[in-house]
C-alpha cells in the first residue's frame, strides 16, 4: 500500500498595522500653520516659528521655489523670502 504524505502548510502571521497620519494636499488645514510650496499645502506645524524655520531651510536648498506659510486661524498666507 502507498503511504499518503501530509503537506505542512506555512503559518501566516499578520502584524497589526498602525493607522497612518495622512495629510491631504487638497484640504486646507483648520488649525495651526502650514507650509505651502508652489501653491500646494505640504506640511502642517504647531507654531509659526516652526513653519518659518522649515520654509527658510527649504529655500536655502531650493531657492527657485515659491514658499509661503499659512495661518489657519486667520486664513492668511505669508510669502517667505
Structural description of this entry:
The protein contains one helix and four strands. It has 81 residues and is of the alpha+beta class. It has a domain at 33-79. Strands 2-1-3-4 form a four-stranded antiparallel β-sheet, covered by helices on one side. β1 and β2 (40-45) form a beta hairpin. The model has no long low-confidence stretch (mean pLDDT 88).
Question: Which key features would you list for this structure?
Answer:
81 residues; 4-stranded antiparallel sheet; 25% strand
Tell me about the largest β-sheet. Answer: 4 strands, antiparallel
Q: What's the quaternary structure here?
A: single chain
Gap between N and C termini: 86 Å
| Contiguous uncertain segments of 5+ residues | none
Percentage of residues in DSSP E strands: 15-25%
Count of discrete alpha- or pi-helical segments spanning 4 or more residues: 1
Mean pLDDT: 88
Binned, the helix content reads: 10-25%
Strand order of the largest sheet: 2-1-3-4
In short:
The chain is α+β, with helices and mostly antiparallel strands. It is built from one helix and four strands.
List strands and helices in order, with pairings.
Elements: E1 33-37, E2 40-45, H1 48-61, E3 67-71, E4 76-79
Antiparallel strand pairs: 1-2, 1-3, 3-4
Amino acid at each position: 500500500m502507498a503511504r499518503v504524505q501530509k503537506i505542512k502548510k506555512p503559518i501566516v502571521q499578520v502584524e497589526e498595522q498602525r493607522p497612518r497620519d495622512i495629510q491631504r494636499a487638497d484640504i486646507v488645514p483648520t488649525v495651526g500653520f502650514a507650509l505651502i510650496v508652489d501653491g500646494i499645502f505640504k506640511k502642517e506645524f504647531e507654531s509659526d516659528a516652526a513653519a518659518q524655520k522649515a520654509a527658510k531651510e527649504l529655500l536655502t536648498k531650493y531657492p527657485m521655489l515659491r514658499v509661503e506659510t499659512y495661518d489657519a486661524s486667520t486664513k492668511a498666507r505669508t510669502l517667505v523670502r
